[in-house]
Structures are given as structure tokens and as C-alpha cells.
Amino acid sequence: MRGKTGNIRDDILQRSWVVAIGLIILGALVIYRIFYIQHYDLYKGKPWIEYMSKTVRVDTIPAMRGNIYSNDGSLMATSLPYFEVSIDPTVADSVYFYTRVDSLGTLLAKTFGQRTAESYVKELLFARHEFERNERRGNRNIRLLKRKVTYREYSIILGQEFKGNVKKKDGTTEKATWKGWPFFRRFSSTGRSRGGKLMITYERYNPFGSLAERTIGYLDKKTRRGLVGLEASFEKRLAGTPGVGLYRVLDDQTFMPNEDEDGLQPSNGYDLHTTIDVNFQDIAETALRNTLRSYNAAYGCVIVMEVQTGEIRAIANLSRDTDSSYRETYNHALAGLGNPGSTFKLASMLAALEEGMSPKRMYHTGNGIATYKSAIIRDTKRIGHGSITAQQVFEKSSNVGVHLVMKDYFYTKPDKYVGYLKRFHLREPTGIQMKGEPDPRVRTPSDKRWSKTSLTYMSYGYESELTPLQMLSFYNAVANDGYWVRPMLVKQIKQADQIVQEMVPFRSEVRIASENSLRNARKMLEGVVDHGTATNIKNPFYKIAGKTGTAQKLVNGRYVPGLYNTSFIGYFPADAPRYSVLVVVDSPRGFSMEQLYAGSVAAPVFKEVVDRIVGYDINMHPPIPKQQNKNSEMSRQLRAGHADDLRVVAEEMDIESPVNVNGWVEAKKDKDGVKWESRDADPNKLPNLKGMSLRDALYLLENHGFKVAYKGKGKVAEYEYKGGAYILTLR
């Protein structure tokens, strides 16, 4: 049995080898045949590979890039189709070509006006003659226009109607209508044209112009891929998938689709639905631009973020250009690392509060100058603040006071301080849905550059570098009852009306600090506006909480007095935070040093932005008191008029109409309140005008042929006929 089994296995193995060798030989023969056909077999007198390379090309068919929308559905970026108009004069038969070429020339000249009809016809005839006489090798692609045409013009070329007579088989003629220009008109059976070509390309267009330009982003001119902003960050989603098709080679740079080949059709890109509010964005950019111009500043940015969700409503970035105008050339809010200055004091004070510091604890700041090892600490107030509470240290932004707080709680345990910074999410990027955010540079005791004074300088905003967005996220967490949320710019990715991906806001599961510490920190932020460095933006309509920050600029390794990066970070309304806002104005110039601090430069921008947001966002307005008696209010406001008009007013006020008579009426007191009675409606007699609106009085008087003059405002109180005219007194 074993011997027979072994013989069977050997036999199967031998047969397998024979089959394998046969397949290898067959494959080699197929490859050889393909190679032979390509390089040696002739087609129209040329090897196939040479013929195909000069007549047919496999190329991509562009996909339409997805749109970018604002949070209310307004279009912020889209792709518009443009078409290159050209013709292959070799496609049409001779009869059609020579009978239609004049019509095409006339239509081109009349519609686009770039050349005369004779010029078009001459070029087309020359190309056709070259093709017919010169061994059929003439110019096979004539570009008819110097520019690409819009979709509207494309529709004219393919859809313009023409009327004429057509000859039937029995020799008679009948009237007919055609759509499309000669040579571009499509055959109903095949969809092909007689040589006219409209090659599509897509151009990116921003309906709001430069609004949020750097955030929305733009494309690389050569590759047509997203270069910056959302265009780059969501390149794969927006770009779609290009198709593949066969193209006829017309010349070295021109390739036209083969109309007999459908190819692999492109898949258009997805749409982005962002959190940007175009009105908030316009408010932010306008306020920022005005201040930058006023102070001749280097650059600035404004961010408006919804407190609970982290959705960014506006993100404005403006930099001074060579012509002194301001444009969005760099995303400072996202990528601009720098010293945060005194806005960082919130982190230091919150850490101290977590360690048990009382806001009422006294600190003796003396004359505003202190030394610690090699560090000299100065307050901006030259005579100092004297003895103040921890609450006032923050409100007045005392560097000496913050140094004393740090000395009490962290100089002997720096690791604990930087641990708090990690807990506050200040040692990591926010992870926003956009490329380009750097890691914050916050020193730790293990860093090589850590020194004995690092903790001192860090406590009030130096020797650390963070982006404005990273700082705003921290302040937003304080406003959000301690819960840190990730900033969001994109809410949904959609394909038409179908949601492809829903972006869910990320919120930390634990607070960044205890409820008591957060409560005290918010009181400190409110105190800055009520009693501290930003009292100039206090107002009676809504409460603001925030902190000013003025950081000296580092130039060639040295801090330069008078050259500042100013900022203000806060939220509103302070008692029920809805939005957090950051403002940065860098290197303001032209005023005294004291007028270049954040309270004078950045804080007013914050207030201007917030004032306009409060005015715009109806959800932030206090509810209108409910009218207890709409009938009596209507009677008080309207004392006389036409019954039909009063019924319209009642309908708009959503009350039952109190007017049950017709014509001209007046309100009269009644034991039950007010009742409406008819006034004399005799067309030959002028009714009583008292209590009427000016509009009704003018109507009646002018219909009776009287001239009218009036003075005052309100309803008609008195009237008299004098000097050929009625004089109305309104009160």
C-alpha cells in the first residue's frame, strides 16, 4: 500500500510540474506577442506603440471639489466650472464644414467680441485645407477663445435655439428648431459633436472674498491641492476621486476626451459644514482691522468660541503687508507661538487656589520692585500697589504679587506647578481639526534650559510659548465650569444631503480644578473689568470677565521696552457664559508707552466685538415682557383710524379684533374699557381728525383737495385751516 501511495504522489507531482511549465511558456508567449504587436506590428504604417502614444492617451478626469459652508449654510468656498472652447476641424464632413463655418465665426464674434467673424473663418478654413492637402496632418485643435468661458456661456453654446427649414426625403421642406451652435451641436443618437469641444476645468471661488481667507484656505496653483487652512486639512475629503478616460492626442499639450469611451467617471468631493458664523467673522475682522490701522500694529487675531461646545464662530488673522494694508497671510491664532504675558497669570493663580490660597490673603508688593536670585521683578505701576489681597494682585496684574504667591506655594516644588499646567491642558496642543498647530513650549524642571528663575518668569507669562488658541481653550474651560472642550471648526462632512461624518464635541470628563477654586478664579476675572486693568470696557448691559496681557517683545535675544504683544482673553455674559473671546494686537505704535498696554489696545477690540455680537444674537437679548392687556395697549397707541387697518394691527398682535364697525372709527372710553365707534363717513364732509395718525390724516385731507402742513410727532392733537392749507399739530 505504501508503495502504491508513493507512486501516486510522484505521478501527481510530475503532472503539476508539467502544467506549471506549460503555463509559464504560455505566459511568456503572450508577453512576447504583446511586445511584438506594440513594437513591430504596424497600424496605419506605424508601430502600435508609436501610434497610440501620438493619438491616444490615458489620463485623469478631474473631480469637482467639495464645498465649504458656514454654520448657517452660507457658501464660503466652492468650485465653479469653466470651459476651454476649441474645435477639431477634421471631424465634420466637407459639406457640413463648409456650409457651417461662416455661421460659427459670426456667433463667436457676436457673443465674445475677441475677434472678427472673418478672422475666425480664415483660421478654420486654413486648418481644414492643411488637413486635406498636407497628407491629413494639419492642425487638429484650434483654440477659439483666449479665455475660458463660464457655465452660462457654456449653456449658450450648447443650448441656444436656431430656427430654419429642413428638407424631407420627399423633397418638401418643413420648419425645424435646433439647439446648440454648429460643430458643438450634439447628435441625439450618439451624443457626439462635429468637432466642437468644451473641456471642463474647475476654479475655486470664495463668495465672501477674503473673509476668513486663511481659515478656509486656498489651493496650490500648480497641483490644485489644498495648501493651507481647511482646504489642506481636509484635502482627501474635499478633493474627491478623479476618473480615468481615453483622450485623443491633438498636439503636444492638447488632449480631448474620446467620445466613444465612457471611462471611469470621477467621484466628486465631500462638503464641509463649518462652525463659522459669517456675521461674527465680519464683526471680528472689521473691529480688528480698524484697531490695527489705528495703532499701525504688526498683526492681530480674534477668536470667538462657543463656551459649552468649543465651536469656533470666528477666527480672524490680519498681518500688515508691504503696502501697509492688512491681509490674512498667516494664521496667528492657530500657529503663532509666543509669550502669553499676563494672561498666563490665571493659570498661576488657579494653581495657587488649588493649593489652598485664599483670595483675601494679603501680599505686600511695596514700591512695585522685587528681586529673586538673578531676576528683577517690576510692576507696570511705578510707585507699586502697596499691600493688596490676592484678588487685587490679579485684578491689578501685579508681577510682584504673583511672584510672592509663587514663593508661598511653588518655589520649593516646581514639579507640582508644571503638573497643574498639564492638568489645565496648557502643555499640549488642542487637537483642533486643522493642520499647523504646534506643541506649546512650556518648560519643566527636566529641561536643559530650566534655571533657578524659570518659575518666576513663567508665573507671569514669560519663558513659555503658547498659541492664542491654546490660551483661549484654557480660559474657556474656566468659563465652562472647569470642563475643557476641544475647539471645533467642522461640524459635519456631507455628500449632498447625506451626512458622511458627524463631528461630536470633545469635553473632558473631569474638571481642571475644584468648583471652589474655579468660582474664585471667575470672581478674579470679573474683578479685572470691575476694578482692575480693564475698567474701560465695563458696561451696564452685560457683565464681562477677562484678563489683560501685555508681554514685552523679544528682539535679538533681548526684551525691548515699548514693544509689546497685547492681548485680552475673556468671556460673556460673565454670569452665564455663552462665548469666550480672545484678542491679540502685536506691536502697536504711535502713542505713549502707557497707552500701548493691553487695557488700552486689545480690551476695546474685545468690547467692540462683543457689543456687536450681543446686538446681533437675538438669543442673548432679554425676553420682552408679556403684555398683560394687548387690547388696552392697542387702544392707547391707536386712538383713531380706518377699521380695516386696525384689524390688520390686531391680527399682527395676535389678539381678537376689538373693532366691530367699518369705515373711519375712533376709540371712546366706556364703562368696560374702550369701544370703537364710527366717525362721520360722509364723502362730502371731513371727519374728525383728532387721534389719527399722520398717514390717515394726510389721506383724508388730500383726497378732499386740501394742502397739508404739519409739525411735531405722534398723533393729530389739533388742526386748523389757515392760509389755504390745513395745519396739523402732532403730539
Describe the overall structure.
The chain has 731 residues and is an alpha+beta fold. The protein folds into 4 domains: 54-74 and 208-274, Penicillin-binding protein 2a (Domain 2) (Alpha-Beta Complex), CATH 3.90.1310; 88-194, no CATH class; 279-618, DD-peptidase/beta-lactamase superfamily (Beta-lactamase), CATH 3.40.710.10; 630-730, no CATH class. 34% of the residues lie in helices and 25% in strands. The protein is built from 21 helices and 32 strands. The strands form 10 sheets. Strands 4, 5, 6, 9, 12, 22 and 23 form a 7-stranded mixed sheet that branches. The protein has a 6-stranded antiparallel sheet with strand order 15-14-13-26-25-24, with helices on both faces. A 3-stranded antiparallel sheet has the order 3-10-11. A hairpin with a 2-residue loop joins strand 28 (664-670) and strand 29. Helix 9 runs antiparallel to helix 18. It is flat and about 105 Å long. The chain starts with a helix and ends with a strand. The model is unreliable at 249-256 (pLDDT under 50).
